[in-house]
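thread from #wetlab-drylab

HS: before we spend reagent money on co-crystallization trials with zinc ion, can we at least see a predicted complex? here's what I'd submit
DV: go for it
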Amino acid sequence: ANGIERPKGYNVSFHFNSKAEQHHFGQSHPMKPWRLTLTKQLVLSYGLQFAMDIFETLPATMDQLAAFHSRDYLEYLSRITPDQSEVIANNFKIFGLGPEGDCPVFDGMWDYCRLYSGASIDAARNLISNQADIAINWSGGLHHAMKKWASGFCYINDIVLAIQQLLTVVPRVLYVDIDIHHGDGVQHAFWSTDRVMTLSYHKFDPETFFPGTGGKDETGPKNLVNPGAHYSLNVPLHDGIDDAQYEDLFDHCTGACIEKFNPQAIVLQCGADSLGGDRLGKFNLNIKAHGHCVDFVKRRSHNRRLLVIGGGGYTPRNVARAWCHETSLCVGATLRNQLPAHIPYRQAFMSAENGGGELYPNLSHITTRRHENKHDKGYLESLKKNIDEQLKYVEN
Ligand code: ZL4
Ligand code: CA
Ligand code: ZN
């Protein structure tokens, strides 16, 4: 209004805490927080820190976490140590923790939880105060955690906490989840409200694949008087989906949700276990297609706040390459495909899989064995139609 125009481009803030990256879930556990160090090193090697504001975050406080989680559960999480396991073994079950499950009690677990959650809360606050247009927290995105228990490697649901922050200033938030697992914790938390629309793309096979929820008819409360009816959307997929199929499906469904729901803020969970070659995942996506989703949401989020967060991802070198690439998409930089020659942990990127025999690993390709593609055109079209049908009930 006073003639001062903002420079073209986006203000991007990058939220991290080095201490979060140093925790270990235990021997052979697939979740490896050091993938965050690998990601950050790659981001720094490309010089992306000069195109963003970097924030080292403080741990979230008990009161901040209690905005979603029950005090009983938080008290337990904050007190339990690995060696007390026998004394309170019974409580393990109640709160979803335990050595035989997905969520072990490890040294520093409480600090780890407070750090990754603090980073998502900070990122949301940075958007709220208009310090950033896009805020990134690769350590967050732990979408399975429930109000009163841990689930699927997730102890605290940082996404719910961040969305709650955003809801203090905007009427509507769209949550989009491209992790290969269903975003059940976030969906459940906002099941009964029309202020948050959740949209998850995932492998769906209730018999064999975690968490087993997220069928196409799981669209919100069936009682149509409940405001949440039609505000939970799911895109259930099979093994082996490829780049072109995923991009087409993502653009159609996400584009329609943004248009119809017209949110003021978007939260994008970028779980990298949907990439080909993932230790747990079974899709065939390349980094380019995964990044396409980030770029698409960014291009459609003009004048909307955008929070970009991590999630799963169990082949660390691929996680780091994907999230570095996606950081560059957020800031609007084009990186050379050849990785910088002097990155720390360079060995971690050198793998027979990366073109075996190539001198330098690159940013774009995953060349592991592909999974058989179980999708046909009819099925993919039916998924699009299903989303279109649900969105007929939504108008803003
Ligand atoms: C492991 O090797 O499918 C955990 C989990 C620990 C090391 C110690 C072995 C102890 C694979 C997985 C035994 C642990 C057995 N260790 C865990 C039905 C299950 C019951 C629990 O990306 N056992 C449960 C969860 C999924 C199940 C996926 C994705 C998170 C996210 C966001 C969560 N749970 C079978 C597994 C191992 C382990 C090896 C494992 N767990 C693979 N898939 C699961 O969406 C961050
Ligand atoms: Ca998902
Ligand atoms: Zn996952």
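DV: Residues 28-30, 100-102, 142-144, 152-154, 179, 181, 210, 271, 273, 280, 311-312 surround ZL4 (ligand 1) (CB under 6 Å).
HS: ok that's useful, forwarding to the group
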